[in-house]
Amino acid sequence: MNRPHDLLAALARDADPGPFALVRREGAAHLDLFTGTVRTADRLADLPLPDGAAGPRTLALVPYRQIAERGFECVDDGTPLEYLEIAGHAPIALADALAALPQAPVVTTGAAFDVADEEYADTVQRVLAEEIGRGEGANFVIHRTLRATVQGSPLRAGLAALRRLLLGERGAYWTFLVYTGHRILVGASPERHVSVDDGLVMMNPISGTFRHAGATPDRAALLRFLRDPKEVEELYMVLDEELKMMATVAEHGGQVIGPYLKEMAHLAHTEYLLAGRGSKDVREVLRETMFAPTVTGSPMENACRVIARHERSGRRYYSGVLALLGRDGAGRQTLDAPILIRTAEISPAGELRVPVGATLVRHSTAAGEVAETHAKAAGVLAALGLAPEAPAADPARAVRNGCSGSARLAPHRDPEQPLAEDPEVRAVLAARNTSLARFWLEERVPGTTRLAGLTGRRALIVDGEDTFTGMLAHQLGALGLAVDVRPWQRAAPLDGYDLVVVGPGPGDPGAITEPKMAALRALLADRLAAGLPTLAVCLGHQLLAGLLGLPLHRREAPYQGLQRDVRVFGTSRRVGFYSTFTALADRDRLGTRYGPVELSRDPADGAVHALRGPGFAGVQFHPESVLSRDGLAILADVLGHLLARPALTAHGPADRG
């Protein structure tokens, strides 16, 4: 079977054509037809990737429940990790596929969301108040599912929906149908999760949703959207979260490229591209990046707990990935994995599911997030006959107008999609980078930011369940330290380290009997008592402030994903906050049992942004965040205080003697 005609001929005979996948990747003038045998695996590491000729080897359907491989919480619905062991691969011209795929409309009955609009709105309010409002994280994605029953052949309905997506949707990274014999997945995913090609690892955070009904968005309304602080901050937050993942899978972390505008049939998004060199097995890359913050939240581990608390059912394949694994001509591993969103699942009995979620941030409104779920589902629902179709687009121009190709750094732009090229649109997008950290925006040359005297010195970062610690490790490493990262549960032993960093994490620092808070407080108390160099970041800073006798306060308006100019030990700095709690003080100096402490306070409310004393320091913000334009310089100053070493000037490292 190497043509869509063969599929249709089998269906006309009421025969099962066997497992297959039809995939159109971004900008391609053809579809790839993959055939083979479907098997199941328990773990991502069990996916086969044999040696041999170049080409695709395995197409895996990775369900959300695989997040348990990382030790994260989920509602386990038993959805299997299925994969197609590819035996046949043939290209099909787009025009030929469109001519052969069924044109009859899809007919369904009983369509309804499993969570009604009013109930979903109530959930949004609870998450804003009980999770973001209490310091559990910066943003969370909560999903709901439209359910219906397909009339007639489910596979024929899926192929008809694929045809309509190829014609009617634009801007998709992958447009696809996968049939395993047990299920059909058909969709048009806008978002690359992760790819690996020639050793280049790439991720593609997309966030911010502009809803429109026309073939082209209204320019004035789009510009208002692009300037909306909620939408800007939402993209920054997922950018930071995917930089955390890149810190794990790329040798020097990720370089930020963009932002760009992505236009689709019913909506538009904003996006960045992240790129970095790595050498990990692609299955390990998949495991370490489960799953995108754009469909889960941040920080990731606690986002999974929040999802489990507020969603009343498992996610099945929603927010997982469709992963194509293979080898290139030199035998190197390749990976291309779109996120499973804007995707319908159809069972052999005709049961239809279309899951969709909205990203909840501190600026969210219940009505706005309800509307966002409808807009995100619109493309797939239109292909299934459950929503109005968008104005027709020429399939030959249905090119993703963000970043094209798994190994390209420069974006491909379609000149017939003018808003992406509009000078003011491009200027507004480019302006988003003016206050971001150059450390993450520019290609980093090892050694150029190294501080004299730090070679051979070691630092341990204790992770409080926020993998910002991976980014912090890259920055401290760029300054010259050799860095290890350990989870708070296994922080010991601390011998042999010149510096211990008690890192960020979610939770209420006032809950001092909670295991994590108790363990981190005890670690900090021991370090203070011994006078050993210690840096505390965000949650660590709050716990340090508590040990120093400062009161802690929960902000009415959380500082989640907020960028501010603040005074840090006499110098104005641009930094990024991810916090709900803060320490308070009414003076700039404090006498403690551990010696005098200097405080950097907000003059308006007394919030303590930073503190330092003999052998210790704390910062409430995240110097490692892409929001912290001056983060590297702040860390250099802190190291100078804690380790009596040089500070970073505006022009690079300089020895202070």
Structure, explained:
It catalyses: chorismate + L-glutamine = anthranilate + pyruvate + L-glutamate + H(+). It is a single chain. The chain is an alpha+beta fold and 657 residues long. The strands form four sheets. The chain has an 18-stranded antiparallel sheet that branches. An eight-stranded mixed sheet has the order 20-19-21-22-28-27-26-25, sandwiched between helices. It has a two-stranded antiparallel ribbon with strand order 23-24. The longest helix is centred in the middle third of the chain and has 21 residues.
Going by helix content, strand content and strand pairing, the class is: alpha+beta
Estimated radius of gyration: 25 Å
- What global shape is seen? globular
Q: How much of the residues is beta strand, in percent?
A: 25-35%
Helix content: 25-40%
Number of helices: 16
Largest sheet: 18 strands, antiparallel
Runs with pLDDT <50, length 5+? 393-415, 645-657
Straight-line distance between termini: 74 Å
SS elements, strand count: 30
